């Protein structure tokens, strides 16, 4: 952000983080990226630290919501701000891997530059949570997490 330490810049930084928090909450990031959320008991101590539930995408595999905290080993701690923004706006991670289709990056691609930066700044400001999520799992691999299926209903 490049803040110079003045009261005005501290206020602007706080407003930026508040905007990011608002957008993260509005976007429902907690639902897929916080343990317990998809089971009705969100673990606030591990907020955005990675899910404990996987999404089964037919013929593709099972994907668990990743750790969005700045933990350097298991989260986004080694990602740059631009890499974080690119992931949630283009669906592509820094290593080139595409995010699972359950991640609504197409919706996030429509954010303004200012809003995208506010989200990234907020994620980078979180308390790091050390939690490596399992997976991704291929379509025929055994999973180690509870799985929600996204299969369409059988034809009648």
Biggest sheet descriptor: 3 strands, mixed
Radius of gyration: 17 Å
Query: How much strand content do the residues show?
Result: 5-15%
Shape: globular
Structural class: alpha+beta
Helical proportion, percent range: 25-40%
Written account of the structure:
This protein is an alpha+beta fold and 156 residues long. It contains five helices and three strands. A three-stranded mixed sheet has the order 2-1-3, with no helix packed on it. Strand 1 and strand 2 (61-64) form a beta hairpin. The longest helix is centred in the N-terminal third of the chain and has 20 residues, at 7-26. It is globular and about 60 Å long. The mean pLDDT is 92.
Keywords:
156 residues, alpha+beta, 3-stranded mixed sheet
Summarize the structure.
The chain has 5 helices and 3 strands, in the order ααββαααβ. The protein is α+β, with helices and mostly antiparallel strands and 156 residues long.
Outline the fold blueprint.
Layout lengths: L6 H20 L2 H5 L19 E5 L3 E4 L16 H10 L14 H4 L4 H13 L20 E4 L7
Helix pairs in contact: 1-5, 3-5
